[in-house]
Write a structure and sequence with these properties.
- It is built from two helices and nine strands; from the N terminus they run αβββββββαββ.
- Strand 5 and strand 6 form a beta hairpin.
- Strands 1, 2, 3, 4, 5, 6, 7, 8 and 9 form a nine-stranded antiparallel beta sheet that branches.
- It is mainly beta.
- The radius of gyration is 16 Å and the shape is globular.
- The protein has one domain.
Length: 151
């Protein structure tokens, strides 16, 4: 297994997929009917099934079945762990968090923020170029943002 290539792929998947947060210019109804990357956000008051329809650094997280969206202002540390089929850790890496607009976006928005966690798996079947059969990557982190609409 090429560890560097696998790490880059897992990091790429994480950063492209977890950028779970919407733009204020989205239509009022934010249920994209299955397009994009599905994810569960666990927030202090509720858990939300969301879909991330793009691959940008601060891509919208559309709350499925509602008009709600999460507008991100920052992401916490992202941890990527690659395991074999027996669960043995092959390697683990943490990526630093990111803040939108160097913190200016959050500072200039009067809305309260919420911090949610997420985790998901990427299997060898989903990424056969970078994970060997039986291997999987666990990706976990947190996102802070503004919940808007009607979640």
């Amino acid at each position: 297994m090429n560890r560097t290539r696998t790490t880059r792929s897992a990091i790429g998947i994480a950063l492209l997929s977890i950028a779970a947060a919407p733009l204020a210019t989205l239509p009022a109804h934010a249920d994209p009917s299955g397009s994009g990357f599905p994810l569960t956000l666990v927030c202090p008051d509720a858990s939300y099934q969301v879909v991330v329809p793009g691959r940008g650094a601060f891509t919208p997280a559309l709350i499925v079945g509602s008009a709600g969206v999460l507008i991100p202002v920052s992401f916490g540390v992202t941890t990527i762990t690659v395991r074999d089929e027996g669960g043995t850790v092959l390697f683990q890496e943490s990526q630093p968090g990111a803040t939108k607009g160097k913190g200016n976006v959050a500072a200039h928005n009067p809305r309260p923020t919420v911090t949610c966690t997420y985790s998901f798996l990427v299997t060898a079947e989903q990424d056969p170029d970078n994970l060997q059969p039986g291997q999987y990557a666990e990706i976990a982190g947190s996102v802070t943002g503004h919940l808007v609409g009607r979640p």
